[in-house]
Amino acid sequence: MESCYLLSRVFYGMKTRAKVLLILFILIVPLFGLNLPLYAQENLKEEFAMAGIEEGKAAPDFSLPSTEEKDVTLSGLKGKKIVLYFYPKDDTPGCTKEACDFRDNIARFKSADTVVLGVSADSLKSHDKFREKYKLPFTLLSDESKEMIKKYGVWKEKSMYGKKYMGIERTTFVIDKDGKIARIFPKVKVDGHKDEVLEALKALK
User: Fold this and answer.
1) What is the SS3 assignment for the chain?
2) Which residues pair with 4 in a beta bridge?
3) In this predicted model, what pLDDT tens digit does every residue of 163-197 receive, in sequence order?
4) What is the number of other CB atoms lying within 10 angstroms of the CB of residue 122?
């Protein structure tokens, strides 16, 4: 309560122009889904590095059940470029928009010789419904045990309305043909994300 009181005093002590700029910043950043500043992205990448996940290093192998009715392994995809994106939950607004953005640009990903894989902790039954509902032309992987999710360092403490909980932090990994992590996109903002992923793929052989 005391901290709230002090913050309110600071706010009311600010000049009108500064108040307006602060309010506009708070409103505009989430409204346009702006991506994190580069320095913030680098700080998050350092967190991944501490977990052994780093650009230029081999991506951890995995074997997960998929919507293709067979297990998918990273080693089995060697020789292909991969967009491995982690999302919180099937058929929720942000996750649906992200999936549909990949869907609507799947021809561009295929022309870049790239496989798109979506991963969440949802069941295969949930994945099948989500995929059918939105006609998603790529594979979804189910990691109900969260073993692979944790291995990639995306199972993190989150906060909503002051309550803390554990969940998947929206993150995308671009993996090259040799199975190495080429790019990490942490704390993804969905708007414009497909374009930055396609740009990262252009840089690969």
Assistant:
1) CHHHHHHHHHHHHCCHHHHHHHHHHHHHHHHCCCCCCHHHHHHHHHHHHHCCCCCCCECCCCEEEECCCCEEECHHHCCCEEEEEECCCCCCHHHHHHHHHHHHCHHHHHHCCEEEEEEECCCHHHHHHHHHHHCCCCEEEECCCCHHHHHCCCEEEEEECCEEEEEECCEEEEECCCCEEEEEECCCCCCCHHHHHHHHHHCCC
2) none
3) 899 999 999 999 999 999 999 999 999 999 999 99
4) 23
From the candidates 82, 95, 174, 197, give the one annotated as an active-site residue.
Answer: 95
Please state at what angle helix 93-104 crosses helix 193-202, rounded to 10 degrees: 40
- Give the contacts of 48 (CB within 8 A, at least 6 positions apart): 54, 153, 184, 186
CA distances (Å), origin 198, targets 91, 94, 117, 191: 24, 19, 14, 14
95 is an active site residue: yes
pLDDT digits (tens, 9 = 90+) for 6-30: 344 434 555 565 555 545 444 444 4
Please state the separation of Cα 152 from the chain's center in Å: 11
